[in-house]
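Let us walk through a complete example step by step. Step one is to write down the protein sequence. Step two is to encode the small molecule, zinc ion, as a SMILES string so that its atoms and bonds are unambiguous. Step three, shown after the inputs, is the structure prediction itself.
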Amino acid sequence: MRILPFALKTLYTLELSPSNHVKVNEEEKWSLLKQGIKFIDVTNYFSKPEIPVAIYNYPNETFYDDEVYRISEKINHTVMYEKLAKLTSFYTRYYKSKHGVESAQWLYEELENIVNDVEFIHLNKFEHKGWKQFSMIVRIEGKKNRDNIVVIGSHHDSINLILPSVLGAPGADDNGSGTVTNLEALRLYVEYIKEDGMKNRPDNTIEFHFYSAEEGGLLGSMDVFSRYREENKRVMCMLQQDMTGYVSDEKNEHVGVITDYVSVEFTEFLKLIINKYLSIPYLETKCGYACSDHGSAIRNGYPAGFVIEGEFKNTNHYIHSTMDTIDRLSVGHMGEHSKLVLGSVMETCALGWVLKGVKRQKTKDKRQKTKDKRQKTKDKDKRQKTKDKKNSIYMYKLVLLYIYIYALTTLASWSIFNFHFIYIFTTTSLVTLCKNTPGGDG
Ligand SMILES: [Zn+2]
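Step three: the predicted structure of the complex.
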């Protein structure tokens, strides 16, 4: 296939906040991420209207203390370390690479081993249009209310932001850690379900989602939750696990409860679970719009929450590079996140859900609107600057090319002139010489 040098670049529509959209090419997309600006790539979903987020009756006390403590004791740090080591051994898990498909296949087989012999637990690949790395969904079908769904999410892709298609991305923390956190919680939860002839099968449906292409702008989870919305599925809550292994200060170990762009009510429930079942406290923190896959759930009207490894400013700074490695992480900390997952699942698996209302996420206060506006102007300025820079480089190249061609032409005409001169001079000299040679034929 021939690639035309001036072929038009694909443009993507990115949602930087509910009211701020930009059109960019692929390089600009990665450049935004390098600056720490997250977004939802809504190229395929832009025309879809925003859906208000549902509010349900989340428990304000816990009922499964003994069970959760008992299961949590079985969290196996050695197993978690081994799984994470394997996951980070793939050169990259970039969603457009062949390695990314191989790592997904490995994860699929791991999930198969966990769920394979239970008749009401289904494992499905969720394929995407446009790239080969698939998402995965483990569905533990509820025995009473199979349409009430509780989702535990994490993304399994990784990225090196310098050159995504070329450089390695072990992605230990982002998001090998969240993947393994959920893998371990799922393993133990399935083990619990199986006790005494499946007596612990949940009333509601519990789903564990492993998304592809979060790093491309929540692409995998947007496909999943948009499909769920189209099919009118009822997701009662979604808990995201993304970056669960880095501890910046061991003396002040905690988890970070995200409070922006999440369901306030569900987040209150998550705090209750942390206080009850984790050995470490939480700190409230913010991560901006679309900072992980829970953003896709919220955008489709599903209440979601996100708990990260610590206060956002002190999270792992080695992510999105070759330095996001396992040696910088604490498996014990990841285990704390597994407790959060187990506690959340146990306390919601038999809940009789009641819809209490809906909330429009777009209703923002004046300050947020001004902030968005300022950000928009800032982005515009930045883009204009890049454009100007590109134009000046182009002009510079043009001038250089002109000088080069001018020099070449001058040199060439000079050489031709000289050649003519030498030719005429030599010929004339020879003729004169011949004429003056005695005895010549003349
Ligand atoms: Zn991530």
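Step four is interpretation. The pocket of zinc ion is lined by residues 155, 174-175, 214, 242-243, 292 (CB under 6 Å).
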